[in-house]
Write a structure and sequence with these properties.
With about 200 residues, the chain is an alpha/beta fold. The chain has 2 domains: about 1-120 and about 170-190, Vaccinia Virus protein VP39 (Rossmann fold), CATH 3.40.50.150; about 120-165. About 25% of the residues lie in helices and about 20% in strands. It contains 5 helices and 7 strands. A 7-stranded mixed sheet has the order 3-2-1-4-5-7-6. β4 (about 45-55), α1 and β5 form a beta-alpha-beta unit. α3 runs antiparallel to α4 (about 140-155).
Length: about 200
Amino acid sequence: MPLGRRNLYIGGAGARPGGYFNLDLFAVPGVDVCADVECLPFAAKTFQVVECDAVLEHVRNPEAAMREIERVTAAGGFIHIVTPFCHPFHEYPRDYRRFTIDGLKALAPGLEVVAEGWRTGPTATLLVFTLEWLKLWVDSRLWRVFAHGVFGWLLWPLRYLDLWLLRSSYAGRIGNHCYVWFKKPAHFAGAVSPYQSPSTSSGAS
């Protein structure tokens, strides 16, 4: 999806996503503003594209988060939601739930669905759980780091099997991460916010 004049990346952590204003819960390098997705510090209809990548599983109230994402998205703008389905427990700082594609669409009944599918498939699911199983062999943080690095590197090429497996209509039964692209209709009624738009000097492209 082409980027707009203003674009928001939610949950970018230490990454520097090009063309996006990067928001995260924690102040780490690469983050432009620290805030909770359930209360975004931006005016309504600010962004043409909003990317929310593997965030909603960490949010206490995903419905409230979606209302905020809808509010700050401009009419005609796009929202990309990615969440895990079959994936190990991972805290940032908490891990509350998993989602299906239908579950994501149920969070945003007023938006138009542009595209939906699986970003990572059954092989990715098998590999991440295998890695977690291998990490249990030794109760040591050093071993976990070692196992993740070494076995992760050895197993990584197998992920290309998903290029074939995702052609199956049953791949979603054990898919790893699913996504939905939404479009905000022109008639969508957004919430009113006292916040101002982010300054162009924030460092976002």
